């Protein structure tokens, strides 16, 4: 027996830092995708640690669907300034100008144009050859087999039959021009690990994760918050104040809240351990069809 | 719904945070009930969320295989395609947690063509669960899985004998399987094997110990997984920090970042950089939580040193008294992972720790049949084939044998055109001196080497050097101008591109013939040695220029015999004795006063050659030109390149 044991969080942390440094060392033009969510916040903290006391040597990029919760945008701008992040914000200009939105075009079109296409445009524009994402394998069935370095062809497509073997902690960073790698340093983290780490490291997160009285409309069983006046009047009128919180964050019309009293991290974990509903079910986009996440991945979404 | 008080949740979180992580691999086929077993581990450890379950109930009705019961296997299958086929096609990672530990399961399919999946899953695992169907016992597949697990250096195996319910929970059946398995695994030297009888379907010995098998006194599977000791499997002995990234935020900070591959490093330790071999002292260790006194694997750290040394990505910090191997050539077990068959002449990229270099295959020693463990000769590996190879890299690798150090003993081969990870390897060790010989397998080559014959032909040498390897032997009296001619000739031939070696009396006598005097016997021995040196050099295609008095025809004859008559070209410096006296007056005076002896032309006969190849007059201005004309006419130098 010896004292050189490492606890699970520190082991996951070390693994992620190793991955982040490896990407910074081997790719010419990497970027870290920042979604403003809790996983992204953890990932950014890990990047800061990986290069401390130097600055993170690559930019962060947020794909703004223009339908994010207002609190998310405020949070993003505040921390980017405070921490001195090199933050790029991109959106699908064409989609935005033609007024694409979930209420008018449905979740499928909106997600495709304002999220997937916006992301692909931005990756092409900046010619990034590696993009970090905060996805975890335990989030959803089709992610259980995802590599840490996920290879994308020059159309950003993911082919489940054409992924490289990944052994030990040796990652293959070789790509041809135009091809890229999506990198998932949090692959082995679970939702509980993320909360534990936020608690341990005191990482600021968007207040929407904590329970509070909010104006809520029940749309087909999803608790949708009235975040601005773009919600159709006939829906917004039905809003009632409910104490809710969000388990994941995205476009407000597509992100369902849950009734909750959890206003601290401890209470959130307690709620998680007792109320069993996996986190992605509060995202409306998943309901479209069975295996829909796999479909989106093939098309280039994370 | 149970409510947890705020105090409890704090305790829960604090306790949860301190749990360690066990990474395990499950191997076995769908028929063995593997998915059911994992499904139950996940389910019973209460980590399967409500909505996963409701989705499961929906799916079971459509394509379930387990009749009316919940099909646990459906919890696991990830991709649509595989769900339709009912088999898994890749490595899937699952996460669960108990009060004692967190677990990551690498779930790999058992079908033969998926060796590469199992190898992938095994590469990061501390422990492997190998599933056996109690009705079938130890079968070929079991052996294959066990071999792969041992190949990847997993130290703990659980042999899970499943479907005990279908064999009436018989102890005899279980004992026989254990016996068979032990017999098979003895030569594989796996340090820790645990045998557990269970029924995944009914939950016997999965989480709780079974009522049906009172004869089994061991732990349930989950209980075993929670308690097996794996921390000491890590290498804490040999400090290796492969440099990943050099941090240089300002002029006064230079930090070397990397993941601790093995060993322990403390502040104040003396460390050595490799391959530059500079020594420095560790001044700071920055861990993920700030400055720390020491670091150990698998922590990610940044280290600062007492002074600037030459160190960059791909290089390594070690303790000066404990070095890894620093070699370009080594042997490894290689697993071919690519759909495309190996082309053994590929100039691969090899990634090892943080270094990428080029590598080529020198030799395929054998392919190993994973079913029988028999060795077969092979010219090239196909997908899922495994074998022992010899590799040479462009840059030296800083490695340890895989069995001692997984981090510094593993590598991947990347195809230079497709960029695919086409093979993965585990280093056995550098080539031992004894082994170098066995590299030669071609029977003709072997015969030549055994006979001491070069593998390079005379023609190849002539093409390379544009010359024939001959000896230009200049004979003549003391003072005849032999040496001046020899040195001038060497210089001019060199200038024209010849590869020449000059041998003369003083250089040979100062070393090779040091103990010999000028007596006729010793002189003969001296000449014989010179002749042997010439022969070796001529064999290698090199022209030798020899400047020796060599007064006796008999000795010159002997020299020609040794070198080979057709390669021995005798040049005679035909100088008069007066000319020689004028050149070396002191020597001749002493000889005439008998102060020295054995001086040809004075107290000893100089036998003029009867038939020399060239007679040279030292006073002739065109002496060198004449020699070059001769060399060209005779087809010695220069030869026209083809």
Structure description:
The complex is a heterodimer of chains A (302) and B (642). Chain A is an alpha/beta fold. Chain A has helices spanning 8-26, 38-51, 70-83, 93-97, 102-126, 191-201, 233-236, 265-274, 292-299, and strands at residues 30-33, 60-63, 87-90, 130-132, 149-152, 180-183, 212-219, 222-225, 240-245, 258-259. Chain A is built from 9 helices and 10 strands. In chain A, helix 1 packs across helix 2 and helix 2 packs across helix 6. Chain A is globular and about 55 Å long. By secondary structure, chain B is α/β, with parallel strands linked by helices. Chain B has 19 helices and 28 strands. In chain B, helix 15 packs parallel to helix 16. Residues 47-54, 60-68 and 78-89 of chain B have low confidence and may be disordered. The interface between A and B is large, with 68 and 81 residues.
Short description:
Helix content of chain A is 36%, strand content 14%. Chain A is α/β, with parallel strands linked by helices. In chain A, helix 6 packs antiparallel against helix 8 (265-274).
Please tell me the total number of domains of chain A: 2
User: What fraction of residues of chain A sit in β-strands?
Assistant: 5-15%
- CATH topology of the largest domain in chain A, by name, is Rossmann fold
How many domains of chain B? The number is: 4
Instruction: Count every helix of chain A, treating DSSP H or I runs of 4 or more residues as helices.
Output: 9
Average pLDDT rating of chain A: 89
End-to-end CA span of chain A: 42 Å
Distance between the termini of chain B: 90 Å
CA gyration radius of chain A, whole angstroms: 19 Å
Spans of chain A with pLDDT under 50 lasting ≥5 residues? 285-291
Question: Structural class of the helices, strands and pairings of chain B?
Answer: alpha/beta
Highest CATH level, the class of the largest domain in chain A: Alpha Beta
- Class per helix and strand makeup of chain A: alpha/beta
The top level CATH class name of the largest domain in chain B? Alpha Beta
Q: Which CATH architecture of the largest domain in chain A is right?
A: 3-Layer(aba) Sandwich
What do we call the CATH homologous superfamily of the largest domain in chain B?
A: P-loop containing nucleotide triphosphate hydrolases
């Amino acid at each position: 027996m010896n004292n050189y044991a490492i606890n699970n969080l520190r082991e996951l942390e070390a693994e992620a830092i190793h991955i982040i440094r490896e990407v910074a060392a081997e790719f010419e033009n990497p970027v870290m995708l920042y979604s403003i969510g809790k996983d992204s916040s953890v990932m950014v903290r890990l990047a800061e640690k990986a290069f401390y006391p130097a600055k993170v040597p690559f930019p962060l990029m947020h794909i703004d669907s223009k339908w994010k919760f207002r609190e998310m945008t405020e949070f993003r701008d505040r921390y980017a300034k405070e921490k001195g992040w090199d933050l790029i914000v991109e959106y699908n200009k064409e989609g935005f100008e033609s007024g694409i939105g979930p209420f008018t075009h449905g979740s499928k079109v909106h997600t495709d144009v304002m999220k997937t296409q916006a992301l692909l445009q931005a990756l092409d524009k900046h010619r990034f050859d590696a993009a970090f994402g905060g996805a975890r394998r335990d989030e959803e069935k089709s992610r259980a087999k995802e590599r840490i370095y996920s290879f994308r062809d020059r159309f950003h497509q993911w082919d489940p039959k054409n992924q490289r073997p990944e052994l030990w902690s040796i990652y293959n960073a070789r790509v041809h021009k135009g091809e890229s790698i999506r990198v998932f340093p949090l692959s082995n983290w679970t939702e509980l690990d993320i909360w534990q780490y936020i608690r341990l490291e005191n990482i600021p997160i968007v207040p929407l994760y904590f329970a509070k009285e909010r104006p809520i409309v029940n749309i087909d069983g999803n608790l949708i918050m009235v975040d601005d006046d773009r919600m159709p009047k006939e829906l917004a009128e039905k809003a009632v104040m409910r104490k809710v919180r969000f388990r994941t964050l995205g476009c407000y019309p597509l992100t369902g809240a849950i009734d909750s009293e959890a206003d601290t991290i401890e209470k959130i974990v307690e709620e998680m351990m007792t109320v069993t509903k996996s986190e992605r079910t509060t995202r409306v986009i998943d309901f479209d069809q069975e295996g829909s996440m796999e479909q989106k991945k093939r098309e280039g979404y994370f | 719904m149970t409510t947890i008080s705020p105090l409890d949740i704090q305790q829960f979180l604090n306790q949860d945070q301190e749990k360690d992580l066990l990474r395990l691999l499950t191997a076995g086929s769908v028929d063995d009930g593997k998915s059911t077993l994992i499904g139950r581990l996940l389910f019973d450890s209460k980590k399967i969320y409500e909505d996963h379950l409701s989705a499961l109930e929906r799916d079971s009705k459509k394509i379930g295989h387990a009749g009316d019961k919940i099909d646990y296997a459906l919890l696991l299958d990830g991709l649509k395609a595989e769900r339709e086929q009912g088999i898994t096609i890749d490595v899937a990672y699952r996460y669960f947690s108990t009060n004692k530990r967190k677990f990551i399961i690498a779930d790999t399919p058992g079908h033969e063509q998926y060796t590469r999946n199992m190898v992938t899953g095994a590469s990061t695992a501390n422990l492997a669960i190998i599933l056996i169907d109690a009705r079938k016992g130890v079968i070929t597949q079991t052996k294959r899985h066990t071999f792969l697990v041992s190949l990847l250096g997993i130290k703990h195996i659980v042999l899970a004998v499943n479907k005990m319910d279908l064999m009436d929970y018989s102890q005899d059946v279980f004992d026989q399987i254990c016996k068979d398995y032990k017999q098979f695994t003895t030569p594989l030297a796996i340090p820790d094997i645990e045998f557990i009888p269970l029924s995944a379907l009914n939950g016997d010995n999965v989480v709780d110990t079974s009522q049906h098998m009172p004869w089994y006194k061991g732990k349930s599977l989950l209980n075993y997984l929670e308690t097996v000791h794996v921390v000491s499997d890590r290498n804490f002995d040999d400090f290796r920090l492969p440099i990943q990234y050099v941090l240089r935020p300002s002029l006064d900070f230079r930090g070397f970042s990397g993941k601790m591959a093995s060993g322990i490093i403390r502040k104040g330790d003396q460390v050595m950089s490799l391959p530059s071999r500079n020594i420095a002292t560790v001044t700071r260790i920055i861990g993920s939580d700030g400055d720390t006194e020491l670091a150990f694997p698998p922590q990610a750290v940044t280290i600062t040193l007492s002074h600037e040394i030459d160190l960059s990505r791909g290089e390594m910090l070690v303790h000066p008294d404990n070095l890894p191997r620093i070699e370009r050539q080594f042997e490894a077990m290689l697993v071919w992972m690519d759909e495309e068959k190996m082309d053994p002449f590929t100039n691969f990229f090899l990634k090892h720790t943080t270094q990428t270099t080029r590598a080529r295959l020198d030799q395929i020693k054998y392919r190993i049949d994973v079913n029988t463990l028999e060795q077969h000769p092979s010219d090239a590996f196909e997908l899922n084939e495994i074998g022992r190879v010899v590799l040479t890299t462009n840059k030296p690798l800083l490695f340890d044998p895989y069995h001692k150090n997984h981090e510094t003993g593993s590598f991947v081969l990347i195809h230079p055109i497709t960029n695919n990870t086409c093979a993965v390897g585990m280093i056995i060790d550098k080539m031992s001196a004894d082994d170098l010989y066995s590299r030669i397998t071609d029977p003709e080559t072997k015969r030549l080497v055994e006979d001491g014959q070069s593998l390079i032909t005379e023609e190849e040498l002539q093409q390379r050097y544009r010359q024939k390897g001959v000896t230009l032997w200049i004979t003549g009296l003391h003072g005849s101008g032999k040496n001046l001619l020899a040195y001038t000739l060497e210089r001019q031939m060199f200038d024209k591109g010849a590869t020449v070696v000059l041998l003369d009396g003083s250089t040979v006598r100062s070393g090779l013939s040091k103990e010999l005097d000028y007596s006729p016997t010793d002189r003969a021995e001296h000449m014989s040695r010179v002749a042997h040196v010439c022969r070796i050099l001529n064999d290698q295609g090199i022209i030798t220029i020899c400047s020796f008095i060599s007064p006796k025809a008999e000795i010159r004859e002997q020299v020609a015999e040794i070198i080979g008559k057709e390669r021995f070209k005798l040049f005679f410096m035909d100088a008069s004795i007066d000319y020689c006296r004028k050149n070396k007056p002191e020597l001749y005076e002493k000889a005439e006063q008998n102060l020295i002896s054995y001086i040809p032309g004075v107290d000893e006969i100089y036998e003029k050659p009867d038939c020399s190849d060239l007679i040279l007059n030292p006073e002739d201005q065109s002496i060198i030109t004449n020699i070059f004309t001769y060399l060209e006419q005779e087809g010695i130098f220069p030869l026209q390149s083809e």
